[in-house]
Amino acid sequence: MSGGEQKPKRYYVGVDVGTGSVRAALVDQSGVLLAFADHPIEKWEPQFNHHEQSSEDIWAACCVVTKKVVQGIDLNQIRGLGFDATCSLVVLDKEFHPLPVNHEGDSRRNVIMWLDHRAVSQVNRINETKHSILQYVGGVMSVEMQAPKLLWLKENLRETCWDKAGHFFDLPDFLSWKATGVTARSLCSLVCKWTYSAEKGWDDSFWKMVGLEDFVADNYSKIGNQVLPPGASLGNGLTPEAARDLGLLPGIAVAASLIDAHAGGLGVIGADVRGHGLVCEGQPVTSRLAVICGTSSCHMGISKDPIFVPGVWGPYFSAMVPGFWLNEGGQSVTGKLIDHMVQGHAAFPELQAKATARCQSVYAYLNSHLDLIKKAQPVGFLTVDLHVWPDFHGNRSPLADLTLKGMVTGLTLSQDLDDLAILYLATVQAIALGTRFIKEAMEAAGHSISTLFLCGGLSKNPLFVQMHADITGMPVVLSQEVESVLVGAAILGACASGDFASVQVCWGRWIA
Ligand SMILES: Nc1ncnc2c1ncn2[C@@H]1O[C@H](COP(=O)(O)OP(=O)(O)O)[C@@H](O)[C@H]1O
Ligand SMILES: O=C(CO)[C@H](O)[C@H](O)COP(=O)(O)O
User: Fold this and answer.
1) Where exactly are the structural domains of the chain?
2) Cα-flanking dihedrals φ and ψ of residue 481, to 5°?
3) Cα of 76 to ligand 1 centre, how many Å?
4) Does domain 276-478 have CATH number 1.20.210.10?
5) Ligand 2: nearest atom to the Cα of 330
6) Ligand 2: which residue has its CA nearest to atom 6?
């Protein structure tokens, strides 16, 4: 190459598997997102509180979106691939074929989704053990974690699933296995959802005490006995078969994955805010709370030393930003709750018709409708008589009580569009109050938070963002790059490629 010629560009692909859809992005070596694609995924709810998906369907959606974002690019310039996903449980047999996680024996449905609450009796028994490991999940294990779901499978689907199972994967780790054939697990998923300790490894006494001693006996081969930090390069990279599926070249570096909330946290928490006059400009990164808000909301705060927050998951070492401890608060349904309240209201068909006529989303329409009816008052005052308690799917943080239910007070006989708009507003406010509740619990335990950094689907809703600012009394920062979760996933691919020495170096160049 002559001195004047430029080096060929280098690209990385990030794939983000959310609850409702799969997204992919092509990102260049400066961290700029050049192409985006998304594709819906299937969900089943065969009975109340049972939520299932198909790992084959999810992989097929990953292939669709990846092929789209690399169209027109010289594939030789694509250097790395990173995945993030929801923390759902994928079950495969010894030959890596899907196994049913349901009474119907439908093996297509081989994923117990993260929001599935079938394992209530199992998690209650796990919590009754008072095992010391529970202090690393806020004192109370959530029914959404993997241990209670595994125990449910053992107790309920012994012959059709448990005895035949060869591999239990967190969804992010399933994807990296599917791409590389390497069964190593990410430190992120094992630490955050499976009770693994970055310092001490698996705790035999926990698994024996809860009735899952089977894992100890076979040296954890079914749930992971090779653990790698997120961003580590896996095996020989993309296998020829996976390369064909994804429309990429074999051998491209594939990274150990992250959970979706953690990829979002990585994508926003270090953002360069210089020149905006924000209070956090001169403060350490530990003064920031990243809130990743999609179907659920996850509240990610980091610290130099471990902080134990009752009802808030963690502290987890190096599970999101290497070298930092992580606490993760959360609300199990936020986007899903707003959709539920709006779509279940009698005036929804009228709303849909009016929004369609204006070529707007129902939320854009509702936001402008609230502006119309608020008259001279700030919009928040429209709900002085109407209040929502948002724990329709239990409370993840800080009460850590899965038995809690939702509540609405102040209802009248009105079912018109004004009524729907005000109920929508009260729901958004309730969710923002939930964020404040979590932030206050984290501060009471030792965090010092001055600024919120939002990303995920709900951060595209200006009312949601404004209510978070009004109700927490803190500035809310949105990244210039809306798809921050995908930037987090691409950082993994960039790190695995060897073009950046570590996740932290890439993070420093792209984000901070
Ligand atoms: N432009 C938008 N305005 C308002 N709400 C939005 C917008 N885009 C997405 N959402 C809401 O965000 C939620 C989904 O967020 P997303 O991050 O896509 O979820 P997931 O990662 O769980 O699949 C849904 O409840 C949806 O209604
Ligand atoms: O527990 C979580 C992260 O630790 C998330 O709630 C879960 O992964 C679902 O994410 P999303 O709501 O974005 O689909």
Assistant:
1) 11-114+166-194+224-259+485-510, 276-478
2) -85, 105
3) 34
4) no
5) 6
6) 296
Instruction: Kindly report, residue by residue over 233-283, the tens digit of the pLDDT.
Output: 999 999 999 999 999 999 999 999 999 999 999 999 988 899 999 999 989
Phi and psi at residue 59, to the nearest 5°: -65, -40
In which band, very low, low, confident or very high, does the pLDDT at 503 lie, cut at 50, 70 and 90?
Answer: confident
Q: Is the CB of 259 under 6 A from ligand 2?
A: yes
Residue 3 has pLDDT above 60, yes or no: no
Pocket test for ligand 2, best of 86, 190, 331, 460 (most atoms within 8 A of CB): 86
Q: Write out the H or E segment, with its range, that includes residue 292.
A: strand 288-293
Residue nearest atom 9 in ligand 1 by C-alpha distance: 457
What local confidence, expressed as pLDDT, does residue 291 receive?
A: 98
pLDDT confidence bin for 2, thresholds 50/70/90: very low
Tell me what pLDDT residue 34 has.
96
What share of the chain has pLDDT > 90, as a percent? 94
For ligand 1, whether the C-beta of 270 sits within 6 Å is no
The answer to whether 11-114+166-194+224-259+485-510 and 276-478 have equal CATH topology is yes
Q: Judge: domain 11-114+166-194+224-259+485-510, CATH 3.40.50.460.
A: no
Ligand 1 pocket test, pick from 363, 427, 428 with the greatest ligand atom count within 8 Å of Cβ, gives 363
pLDDT at 110: 98
pTM for the model: 0.96
SS (H, E, C) 321-390: CCCCEEEEEEECCCHHHHHHHHHCCCCHHHHHHHHHHCCCCHHHHHHHHHHHHCCCCCHHHHHCCCEEEC
33-40 vs 50-53, strand pairing mode:
unpaired
Distance, in Å, from the CA atom of 273 to the CA atom of 388, rounded to the nearest integer, reads 34
